[in-house]
Amino acid sequence: xxxxxxxxxxxxxxxxxxxxxxxxxxxxxxxxxxxxxxxxxxxxxxxxxxxxxxxxxxxxxxxxxxxxxxxxxxxxxxxxxxxxxxxxxxxxxxxxxxxxxxxxxxxxxxxxxxxxxxxxxxxxxxxxxxxxxxxxxxxxxxxxxxxxxxxxxxxxxxxxxxxxxxxxxxxxxxxxxxxxxxxxxxxxx
Length: 189
Hints:
The protein is an alpha+beta fold. It has 5 helices and 13 strands. The strands form 5 sheets. A 3-stranded antiparallel β-sheet has the order 1-9-8, with helices on one face. A 3-stranded antiparallel β-sheet has the order 10-2-11, with no helix packed on it. A hairpin with a 5-residue loop joins strand 8 and strand 9 (about 100-110). The chain starts with a strand and ends with a strand.
């Protein structure tokens, strides 16, 4: 999904631009796509909403197995999750000079999407984010705020033993394969 993540610094990206990609067309986003708590209701009616396993549980939708088998591919009737709409921007945790960890805005410095000859400037002549960049980054910040809220909700669900661990398997050419392992669903019993 993300290929070359870098912290978005004015000094490094002052004259760099980006292209908005049609994620429906290229099927770039497959597998689990993180969603904020405010997106769960709209997506749960048309695709599975799961809780990712491991130490960093969060709500996610299952978008597809690969770029050819992707629920969003060429489907304009479905709204896109903020995570997909905000590409190539994201938030990462980074250490500073004192080894303190903080969340910072980053960009996928993918040459197919980011470069000096792309269409949308990241920064304007005053070295401030352009209106388009600012809107996308505001959406990214809201998504990560929602994801943090999701983690608190999931923690409560776990503490109350309301989650059920699952594996998702499919048969391909007669052989069973694990597609997703170690994820959770809400136990409705």
